[in-house]
Amino acid sequence: MRGGYGTGDHGTLAERVAGRHQEPAAAPDPPVPSTPARHCRVDGEPSLLVEWCRTERGWEGRVVSVLWMDAVGWVTVARWLPACDIEPVP
């Protein structure tokens, strides 16, 4: 009969009760690559640069900003801007 008395992956019942059985070590999670997102400023306001793209006009960055719209309130805006409009934040 299959049940809690066997010696499966969790050890025998006696080992489990005595706390002598060690669970098999889990494989560590693979490292998460660092995000490409970078803090920046656009028109003096804090923003987040999330992507670069080379166009026929030069480099452009996709920037996510939180802006105040009078009729709506705070909104999240994602837009492509020329590199010269994006100021890096140290």
Protein described:
7% of the residues are buried. The protein contains one helix and five strands. A five-stranded antiparallel β-sheet has the order 4-3-2-1-5, with no helix packed on it. It is mainly beta and 90 residues long. The longest helix has 6 residues, at 13-18.
What is the strand and helix layout of this fold?
Layout: H1 13-18, E1 38-42, E2 45-55, E3 58-69, E4 73-82, E5 87-88
Antiparallel strand pairs: 1-2, 1-5, 2-3, 3-4
In summary, what is this structure?
The chain has one helix and five strands. By secondary structure, the protein is mostly beta strands. The protein has a five-stranded antiparallel sheet with strand order 4-3-2-1-5, with no helix packed on it.
Quaternary structure: single chain
Structural class: mainly beta
Shape assignment: elongated
Q: Indicate the low-confidence ranges by residue numbers.
A: none
Number of strands: 5
Mean pLDDT: 85
Q: How many helix segments?
A: 1
The main β sheet shows up as:
5 strands, antiparallel
Strand content: 35-45%
Topology as H/E string? HEEEEE
Helix content: under 10%
Radius of gyration: 27 Å
Strand arrangement in the largest pleated sheet: 4-3-2-1-5
Q: Distance between the terminal alpha carbons, to the nearest Å? A: 66 Å
